[in-house]
Structure formats: structure tokens, C-alpha cells
UniProtKB/TrEMBL annotation:
This is VOC family protein. CDD domains: SgaA_N_like (cd07247). It comes from Chamaesiphon polymorphus CCALA 037. SUPFAM superfamilies: Glyoxalase/Bleomycin resistance protein/Dihydroxybiphenyl dioxygenase. Residues 10-125 form the VOC domain. InterPro entries: Anthracycline_SecMetBiosynth, Glyas_Bleomycin-R_OHBP_Dase, Glyas_Fos-R_dOase_dom, VOC_core. PANTHER family: GB|AAF24581.1, GLYOXALASE-RELATED.
């Protein structure tokens, strides 16, 4: 990850939640030339999308509790402190859709919703937490 992606306010990661990881990997690797590297993570497979040696995003199978929700892309915006940013979200009239939580070996994240209903994830990485 480049340093700019670890700066507060930077879009730092994109992630596809899909119902068919095989088809998604085939489609996106052919469309964008991404090299896709599968990594087992806590009982599931997570696929990192690479441009050269740079990880630019990931994809994973949608868990059963998301049945009925269409496959979708999500984005992560870097913040200096996820817990403080989550509190600010609520102070500004937004909602916390998934509370601040740790991602082992990655950082800390939360899913938020702005007052107009748009959803995105916020994340802090070890070097800026």
C-alpha cells in the first residue's frame, strides 16, 4: 500500500462482495489485467486484486446472511482513528452500520452511512492509528 492511501481522507481500498468468486475473478482479471492472489483468512478465501506488485482491492464471497443483496463494490476511506471518526459520524447525523472492529494484520474498520443514505467503510492502518 502506498503512503498516500494511508493518509486521512484518502480512498484506500475497494472490495467486491460477490455470489460467484470464480466468475468475478475471470471477468475482472480479463477486463483490467489484474493478477488475483487468493489468501485464506479466518475460515474463508479472500482474493487480493493486484496491479503489478500493488494490491488495489479485494473480492470475497458474500456470506449467507447477505442472501438477497445483489453483488456490489464497496470503498474504504482512510481515517486517523476509526473510533473517533465513528463518533463524529453520529454527531454529524450519520449512522454506524457495522461497529469499529479489528481486521487481523490489516487495521481497524467500521461501516458507516451518511445522512443521505450512502454507505462506505472507514479504516485506519497500523501506521496511522
Amino acid at each position: 500500500m502506498t503512503n498516500v492511501m494511508q493518509q486521512h481522507g484518502a480512498f484506500s481500498w475497494c472490495e467486491l462482495m460477490t455470489t460467484n468468486t470464480t466468475a468475478s475473478k475471470e471477468f475482472y482479471s480479463r477486463l483490467f489485467g489484474w493478477e488475483i492472489v487468493d489468501r485464506p483468512v479466518e475460515g474463508m478465501m479472500y482474493s487480493v486484486l493486484n496491479v503489478g506488485d500493488l494490491g488495489v482491492g479485494g473480492l470475497m464471497a458474500m456470506p449467507p446472511d447477505m442472501a438477497g443483496i445483489p453483488p456490489h463494490w464497496g470503498v474504504y476511506v482512510t481515517v486517523d482513528d476509526v473510533d473517533a471518526a465513528a463518533k463524529l459520524v453520529e454527531d454529524l447525523g450519520g449512522q454506524i452500520k457495522y461497529p469499529p472492529s479489528d481486521i487481523p494484520d490489516v487495521g481497524r474498520f467500521a461501516v458507516i452511512q451518511d445522512p443521505q443514505g450512502a454507505v462506505l467503510s472507514i479504516i485506519s492502518y497500523p501506521s496511522n492509528s
